[in-house]
Amino acid sequence: MPIFGTRPEAIKMAPIVAALQQSEQFECVVTVTGQHREMLDQVNELFGIVPDHDLNILQQRQSLSAIMTRTIDGLDSLFAEKKPDAVIVQGDTTTSTAGAIAAFYHGIPVVHVEAGLRSGNLLSPFPEEANRKITSQIASLHLAPTSTSKANLLAEGISPEDIVITGNSVIDALLTTVDKKIPFTDPQLEEIASSGRKVLLVTTHRRENQGNAMRGVGRALARIADAEPDLVIVLPAHKNPVVREAVLPALEGKPNVVVTEPLAYGEFTRMLALAHVVLTDSGGVQEEAPSLGKPVLVMRDNTERPEAVHAGTVTLIGTDEERIVKEVDRLLHDQDHFDSMANAINPYGDGKAAARTVAAIAHMLGLGPTVEEFQQ
Ligand code: UD1
Ligand code: UDP
Q1: Alpha-carbon distance 223 to 256, whole Å?
Q2: Catalytic-residue membership of 92
Q3: For residue 258, what are the β-bridge partners?
Q4: Catalytic residue check, 114
């Protein structure tokens, strides 16, 4: 039983659901919590996933405790009825940790996909660093995307027999989607695509950046828009009203800023492939953009994804307004600097993470041999 609730979990679980459905060894029962609604349904629709169970927990401006308790409550009765042989949770959202805790309480083995990411700071990202550490304490099988994440788990005393390096299934999702050249629903984006204008693609949503830091991001984007009339800033706005209230007011009336609703995954990856520079605080985007050779400026002070930072395609720049303006300016006008960051690298996966995931679960349940790990 794969359990997921938010956009990034759905994107990363989709290749695994497809692989489970093709496998003759498993019956795949998809359960969604509905922690996200529109942003979750958008992904399921693209990948043709029809959930078997939907807890439908979303509340506007929901609290972390509400997500946790509503998920555990919903899963409690579902597990009692369905008795899955294993559950799969992904990453570090509150859906994933609540799913792991509920399964653990029912004595159901927990498979943790994207295990072992660590920033080293319990408060950043908040609450994700705590969420993923809690899940590591109770999971039976830890599917680490990279050797760095495996090393983090070993350092915390997780047994090596319970860890498999699979690569990250986001690369499976990206590779099956990005070349499809899915048409943009918003005509403004189709126009940008055919104009050949340089695009700065921006996403932001992190809880610890909400408020002052995000207002600063809005001001920085407004200054960049004024200083660079030939550039187009494309900002698919997260559905969270708290994010919109902080970032969008400074951008009103700017002719070269295009704010859209969340883009369906196929449209977003097409925009990513078109973009000149990416400015983000997203985890998934940090993994995808390097694979497409896009320089990424990450609006955070730390990251649990150091691989692309070490490779030089990602720079951590924090949320200071001046620094954002300066770093974007440098990438736009210093060609050597741009070239040094615009390298296509694949530290996070080779597109076969889902197949390794299914094989590793089969091995855990005594149904198959050990799995050959992803080599970076
Ligand atoms: C959640 C995850 C975060 C992940 C992010 C991906 C937690 C605590 N946070 O954060 O780890 O990086 O998803 O985007 O698990 N909303 C809608 N419709 C939607 C989605 C959101 O209306 O489809 C609004 C609601 O008002 C909701 C708010 O956004 O209350 C925040 O959503 P929530 O899932 O609590 O937090 P995210 O910031 O999205
Ligand atoms: N994404 C998308 N549409 C958008 C913005 C992002 O499909 O408008 C995808 C993106 O390609 C990545 C994922 O959503 O795979 C990242 O989600 P998000 O930034 O919400 O969460 P995080 O990865 O930070 O947990």
Answers
A1: 11
A2: yes
A3: 234
A4: yes
Catalytic residue among 9, 114, 267, 288: 114
Catalytic: which of 70, 238, 270, 356? 238
CA distance 296 to 285: 9
**Annotated catalytic residue 128:** yes
With 90 as the cut, is the pLDDT of residue 344 above it?
A: no
Residues of the chain with CATH 3.40.50.2000: 3-168+349-364, 185-341
Could you give the C-alpha distances from 355 to 111, 143, 227, in angstroms and in order?
Answer: 14, 12, 47
**Gap from CA of 285 to ligand 2 centroid (Å):** 6
Q: pLDDT tens digits for 25-40? A: 999 999 999 999 999 9
Asked about 53 being catalytic, the answer comes back as no
The amino acid sitting at 73 is D
Amino acid at 110: V
First-to-last alpha carbon distance for the chain, in angstroms, is 29
Q: What is the mean pLDDT of residues 282-295?
A: 97
36 labelled catalytic: no
327: Cβ–Cβ under 8 A, 6 or more apart, which residues? 297, 315, 317
**Ligand whose nearest atom lies closest to the CA of 204:** 2
Cβ(51) – ligand 2 distance below 6 Å: no
Q: Which fold has domain 185-341?
A: Rossmann fold (3.40.50)
Task: Report how far ligand 2's centroid is from the alpha carbon of 209 (Å).
Answer: 16
Residue pLDDT, tens place only, 169-210: 999 999 999 989 899 999 999 999 999 999 999 999 999 999
Q: How far is the CA of 13 from the centre of ligand 1 (A)?
A: 17
- Identify the architecture of domain 3-168+349-364 in CATH: 3-Layer(aba) Sandwich (3.40)
Give 318's contacts (C-beta < 8 A, 6+ positions apart).
299, 300, 301
Query: What are the strands, taking DSSP E only, across 128-239?
Result: 141-144, 163-165, 199-203, 232-236
From the DSSP assignment, how many helices (H) and strands (E) are in the chain?
16, 13
Q: Which two tokens stand for residue 86?
A: 């294993």
Residues in the chain: 376
125 lines ligand 1 (CB under 6 A): no
Pocket lining: 65 vs ligand 1, CB cutoff 6 Å: no
Give mean pLDDT, residues 91-104.
98
Structural tokens at position 213? 């830091």
CB 175 within 8 A of CB 210: no
